[in-house]
Amino acid sequence: MLHADTSYLIADQELMAGAKNYFAWQGRLVLREAGRRVVEAGCGAGNFTPCLLDREFVVAVDGEPECVARVRARFAKRPNFEAVVADICSQEFRDLRRFAPDTCVCLNVLEHIEDDVAALQSMASVLAPRGKIVLIVPAFRSLYGPIDRRLGHFRRYTRRSVHSLAAAAGVRIEKMHYMNSAGFFGWWLNARVLRRGTQSAGQIRFYDRFIVPPMARIEARVPPPFGQSLFVVMEAEGVS
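Predicted structure:
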């Protein structure tokens, strides 16, 4: 990971925690693809974790012990929940195959990992063949700006770069589309015009309340040709 301040990462996730409509939208996309036994690779502060708790079993994983402690404290009473400290590229992560997961969910995490090929192979390794990897990653290098740098992002993705990544990791792309078309312009404004190093709480509240609900409905009917993020579903092919 780039040298991002852990306290800044957690503060950013806490800022995003109020974006209920946005996480509900992510949930609708992810849950229609996820199986019954899910590894959440890079759970962070647990903003998305509640969306997964209707599954048979959920393992929330993060390399930051502080994040795992927070998530464990929030959900420890759930009988279908486990929290583990492990970097995605580590042997400790690969050992999660003992939980027999059928899906890895990795949302806005892969861009933090320098060797994203190894990370994708590690996720595939915990799944049986034809298990699912569900990703959301930031899109378009042209949007890379001060917020990306402070968050420790190595990159933003395009369809072409995701195809290259999947081929190198030995997994198959099942579906892929851009999402959050309006967010493309907001992120561009912050990155290229305002040169902001942090997200604005006011922007997030306004966007979540007034923009996300109609945009989610429109994009459900007509996937956009661009967006702030890429939604990707991959199939593991027996990577060991």
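Summary: The chain has ten helices and seven strands.
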